[in-house]
Amino acid sequence: MIPAILQRGTSRFWYVICLSLISLCLPPAVMAADDMAPRQAEMAGYLLVPHGKVDARYNAGFSMYVAAWPLLKNYPGQDFQSGLFGTWMFARLDGPKPEKIYSDIEGGLGWWRDTRFATETPKFIMGGVALNFVEWANGPGAGKGRNWQKPAGHYAIAQLSPWVLWPPDGLNLKQGTSGELFGYGYLPLPLTSPKKTTTGADVPTGDQCWTLFLNTGNFKGPVTFFMPYFWSRPTIEKPEFAGLFLDTRPSEPNKAIQMETQHIPAYIGQDAKGDTFARVAPTLFPRTADREAPLIHRITAYNKAALWDGVQAWFEGGKEVSGRIDAQAAAVHTFESRGGATWQIYTPNTSRDKKVPLAWSSFATPVALDDTTYGYKWDTTSVSNNATTITLPEYYRLTRDAGNKERWLVVDPKEVPAETGLAKVEFPKRPGPDRRPYVTPDEADSCWRTPGPAAGPFEAKLGDGSVVTYNWYRFADQPALLNADLTDAERESLQKRVELLHKHWTRDREYLPPPTVGKLADLDPAVIVAPPKGLEIGYVPIVTRQAAQE
Question: What torsion, rounded to 10 degrees, do the Cα atoms 430, 431, 433, 439 define?
């Protein structure tokens, strides 16, 4: 309503002055309705899982079972990035650790900004990191970027299993997986021999081939392994770090267990009084009908007697080894009902000291379900649930605690003023904008064509909406082996060892110690294949292309 003084025809000067005074007196909702629109934000942080330590001699790898589930109700696009629970395995060093020497195996289940064919179901990547991220490797043919002219970890991982396809976008789980346990671990195998020099340089390369073992409902056994050259290659230019990486060094047995989340979509809005509220995309965690769901189970560290010693003797002419990892040469980490969270809600470009934490403990309590199993007890007044998942609270209010520190506290949706606009925001399902195909080199003189595959191409349609093209290569002729600083004689020696594994380590036996709780997750049935007749021993499937299904 315009005041009467303006209706009686004042001069333009006084008209402007009065409007200015009015603008100073009106509340923000009247001044600028556009300023009241919710702002895009994100929720991010870590869930921290303390656990008991084991003796330092258990330094030859690990295994664990982690829940696999759809973290978000709707996949929101490629800004979304989060892992599920996982770990970081570093080399164990003697004495003081040198500065600027980051290198490990991380990866695990999750979603990443470069995932091109993502769904609500997580995928698995290997996540090997060479010195200070100069290269990283996520699986056979999957490294840092997609530039095959400058491969950076693309040839770091060799395909070992003749029964599992590894898509470059990540290893697929069965669509709809929701709370089942995904078993995996890395143990070293003596597949190669140590070398005193690396590509002619006076730095060594060790013989530890860190091998990924899986335990799922429809596949068990070794799948892939890191070539030792991946770890030693950076030391050609940094010889002072020679011999300090996972090709030669034992693993650190006591590892952090966390869930790292970098982006969950959210919005922040204000009401007419200036109070601030937030809403996050529906975020899910597993549940069971009769108890809290296991999220992490049987974190186990091994020494070399668990597998390495027997395999090494076998390769030297000794007794055949079944591949079953010896639980007597293992130590299982224990849990207590403790844990923490650093999840925060904030708008883009917020400085670290201004990001406000979520009051996670108000609705989630860490619980040791038994000595070797970890989960959360949920506040049933704050979360909602269905048959297999609970949904975290969506709405929060910015408040201050007794120490005058800001916190996001759960608020009932009915208590969020309509003018915040948060009730109207949506978190729809969105495919990622980058759905370009993954394509490997096809030149006649490339390592993909010379000596080239023994059979193929074949196709498999995956549950994520992509189709992979793959070929069968003689193990020693796969591209990773041709780029691993191995002589022909060294590759042939490796070929003979792998043929022993293919003949005796079948997919129908146990390898990792099995879980004692829960149900195992399945791989996407489409990634499980059978070798063509005549190629059952000593040949592996290599994916050469992945594209969206037409």
Answer: 170
Residue 367 sits at the vertex; the CA angle it makes with 362 and 369, to the nearest 5 degrees, is 150
Q: What is the pLDDT of residues 459-480, one digit of tens each?
A: 999 999 999 999 999 999 999 9
pTM of the model: 0.92
Q: Helix, strand or coil for residue 462? A: coil
Q: Give 505's contacts (C-beta < 8 A, 6+ positions apart).
A: 221, 222, 322, 323, 511
SS3 5: helix
- Nearest 5°: the CA angle 390, 396, 401 is 115
Element at 258 (helix H, strand E): strand 257-270
Count of residues in the chain: 550
Secondary structure, 3-state, 166-204 = CCCCCEEECCCCCCEEEEEEEEEECCCCCECCECCECCC
Break the chain into its structural domains and give their ranges: 4-31, 50-75+99-104+117-252+296-333+439-548
d(CA 144, CA 153): 6
Strands 296-302 and 89-90: what pairing? Answer: unpaired
| Helix, strand, coil share (%) of the chain residues, nearest 5 | 20, 35, 50
Closest CA to 457 of 437, 479, 446, 442: 442
Q: At residue 246, what is the residue type?
A: L
| Beta carbons within 10 angstroms of residue 361's beta carbon | 12
Distance CA 41, CA 355 (A): 11
Reply yes or no on whether the pLDDT at 391 is more than 90.
yes
Q: For strand 39-48 and strand 340-341, is the pairing parallel, antiparallel, or unpaired?
A: antiparallel
Q: Rounded CA gap, 464 and 256, in Å? A: 31
Instruction: Give the residue among 123, 124, 112, 121 at the shortest CA–CA distance from 70.
Output: 121
pLDDT in tens, 394-425: 999 999 988 889 999 999 999 999 999 999 99
Q: Tell me the C-alpha distance between 275 and 349, whole Å.
A: 21
The pair of structure tokens assigned to 511 is 């390898």
